[in-house]
Amino acid sequence: MNDKIYLVAQREWLENVRTKAFWIGLLIMPVILVAAMVLPTLLSKTKDARAYAVIDNSGWLDEAVQTRAFASDLAIMLDRLGFDGKPWPEGLDELAALRTEFVDQPDRGDFARQSTGVDPAPSEPRLGAAQDLAESIRRWWDSLEPDTARDLDRRLSKAQFRQVPASVESRETLNEKLGDDQIFAYIAIEADPASSDDPASYVSKNLTDNDLENWYRRHATAAIRDRRMELRDVDPELATYLQGEFRLDRSKLSDSGTAESVSMNDRLRQWAPVGFVYLLWLSVFTVSQMLLSNTIEEKSNRLMEVLLSSISPLQLMLGKILGIAATGITMVGTWVICLIGAIIVLPIIFSGGAVGVDFSFLLSEPRYLISFLVYFVLGYLLYAAILVAIGSVCNTIKEAQNLQSPLVIVLMIPLLLMIPIGQDPNGTMAVVLSYFPPTTPFVMMNRAAGDIAWWEYAITTLLLVASVFFATVAAAKIFRIGVLMTGKPPNIREMIRWVRAPVGLIPERREPAEASDGGGQS
Q: Dihedrals φ, ψ of 521, to 5°?
């Protein structure tokens, strides 16, 4: 019997892996994963700087915004340049020489604030030196082109936005430029916002990209606040003190029981299971649907009848499940190998940081990959048993879609709850769904970043294994009758009656004529 199951499984596996379509589809997922890791950063490099114009009737606000943008960019340059192989721009050797004096302080943005005068209470000696140097730096910054700024650091405002001149009478001209896509947007400041509540206008054809609007509003809000304090003669030191934020430095509890600072990898590690859940769901659903389609196809072209002349229905069903399982493991294994390769190779190829996020921590967390493979196998076996039973009683994909609708709804639950469970992996909802076998693989994978007790893994896994066993027994009872049926498929109630019938776990092979006792036409 085992030899026959093996032969059926081997046939199913070879039938899939020998096709070009399988390997093309297999490699699409790694390509998508690599693209998701690399493309956002690469596209941000190719994104043109948004050209904008400002009509400033206040006489001061736009200049204040530009000064604050300069301070922000200067802080970024001082913090980043000289590291990661980034060279200093030509003509700023003087700034490089003073970097140690002004930047190697607890507050890395101190020099930028002093050099621009944005800080209302800098220390006098250092302020003088910073302001002397700031004039030459500001002239360089004003003439900085977006391409040059992008080479220095993509976060610079000069790399993202480019201001074009506009006079107070040129609103109609700006409308024409906006219509011809010569500019991305323009801002019209009609009155002095420090003494008026009248809103300014932001005009653009693009209603989805809000980066320019948010950037300008942020700097303008800070400038207006400082101007209003100056008009009301508010003490700058007192205002700074009153507006000071309560700071919280996030820490985590280490294995040794001490508090450690939280790194970016720690945050990614916490959310990595969400990505694995999506891949797990996609893998289980794709491979199970492959089994369903294969079963219906072989039944509709009468190949089942030929196979059942040599083996029993149970052998055929188990062989198909295991064969498609081998196909799924081939697919998932290839994805895992490609993922590990991408984690190792991409940082080497894109040494300049084009990969935006470092996923190397996954290699130090084998429980993610191990959990993914284990839950894929168990989740597939559970849903495969259900879908092979559905496929055995249906003659077309349309009939199968009607019967599997409740199952699809159950499958959608863990997908819709990925984020809530990731935020609270030990919450009531997560724990309850962990003990519900149809959602166990996905929810437990989602909870992998949480502190889950070993006994919880053990109990949920045992429940899942028991569910796979009983689902396989029930599927065998339905398969042995439904596989030779033709005509209208049975309803759910009739299939439940077949399952409850006192038939042995390994039924003897029945002739096609006997199989018609299930209520269908053979």
A: -105, 130
- Buried b / exposed e along 74-90 (16+ C-beta atoms within 10 A): bbbbbbebeeeeeeebe
CA distances from 453 to 137, 422, 457, 464, 480 (A): 58, 17, 7, 17, 41
Closest CA to 140 of 78, 91, 99, 103: 91
Are 330 and 17 in contact by the 8 Å Cβ rule? The answer is: yes
**Distance between CA atoms of residues 54 and 212, nearest Å:** 12
Residues, the chain, total?
522
- How far is the CA of 412 from the CAs of 4, 29, 372, 443, in angstroms? 36, 21, 18, 12
Q: Is 167 exposed, middle or buried (0-12, 13-18, 19+ CB in 10 A)?
A: exposed
Pairing verdict, β 201-204 and 185-189: antiparallel
Q: Categorize the per-residue pLDDT at 509 as very low, low, confident or very high, splitting at 50, 70 and 90.
A: very low
pLDDT digits (tens, 9 = 90+) for 299-343: 777 777 777 777 888 888 888 888 888 888 888 888 778 777 777
Provide the 8-state DSSP code for 262.
P
Q: What is d(CA 166, CA 67) in angstroms, rounded to the nearest whole number?
A: 18
Residue 53 near residue 183 (C-beta atoms within 8 A) = yes
